[in-house]
């Protein structure tokens, strides 16, 4: 976020959380203005009346902690456009057409988001919103999160029983090999990875292993969007 001067009586159009502890990394000046564009600095008595102190550094901290940042229409529009594109980029990176296994381009996802009239929320992360967008797009087009390809190596004794527990979390079992150990290669929804990993560790008491073969099971080339 661009550095800006705090205002005594801001009229904000957007809200932001400021985590930077070094004020000099956030502010251009520690002065408090009544009107920044006109360069009108707040009077001492006004500061005491509004903040209970005339210590401008302390007042800056109060404004940054409890206040809201003034954002122009142009800045807000730019921010929303960037977030919109970031969301589309995340969706395109995570998803494929389930029939062809081909990924969609960012431009095509942006177009689809516009078609469903998706409105960016500045108080939510782009990752959270990308997951929301995926759910909404599923109602309008063929799209799903790209599957992960995993290999399980399980002790034979525990393996057969564990396989039944893993089945609801597996999309496709591509191969099974019974030898001294049970080896399974499969596709899963990325959202199930942690649960699968914890289940294998728990049920095999650390004797089983899980290997990620591919983060995304996709075909080469972009998917066309009609």
TrEMBL record:
Keywords: Acetylation, Cytoplasm, Cytoskeleton, Nucleus, Ribosome biogenesis. The keyword RNA-binding does not apply. One of its GO terms (biological process) is cytosolic ribosome assembly. Residues 148-215 form the Ribosome maturation protein SDO1/SBDS C-terminal domain. Residues 85-146 form the Ribosome maturation protein SDO1/SBDS central domain. Transmembrane segments: none annotated. Residues 20-76 form the Ribosome maturation protein SDO1/SBDS N-terminal domain. Signal peptide: none annotated. The keyword Acetylation applies. It is found in: Cytoplasm, Cytoskeleton, Spindle; Nucleus, Nucleolus; Nucleus, Nucleoplasm. InterPro entries: Ribosome_mat_SBDS_CS, Ribosome_mat_SBDS_N_sf, Sdo1/SBDS, Sdo1/SBDS-like, SDO1/SBDS_C, SDO1/SBDS_central, Sdo1/SBDS_central_sf, SDO1/SBDS_N. Coiled coil: none annotated. PROSITE patterns: UPF0023. Its main location: cytoplasm. GO terms for cellular component: nucleolus; nucleoplasm; spindle. It holds the Pfam family SBDS_N. Required for the assembly of mature ribosomes and ribosome biogenesis. Together with EFL1, triggers the GTP-dependent release of EIF6 from 60S pre-ribosomes in the cytoplasm, thereby activating ribosomes for translation competence by allowing 80S ribosome assembly and facilitating EIF6 recycling to the nucleus, where it is required for 60S rRNA processing and nuclear export. Required for normal levels of protein synthesis. May play a role in cellular stress resistance. May play a role in cellular response to DNA damage. May play a role in cell proliferation. Belongs to the SDO1/SBDS family. This is Ribosome maturation protein SBDS. It comes from Macaca mulatta. The lineage of its organism: Eukaryota, Metazoa, Chordata, Craniata, Vertebrata.
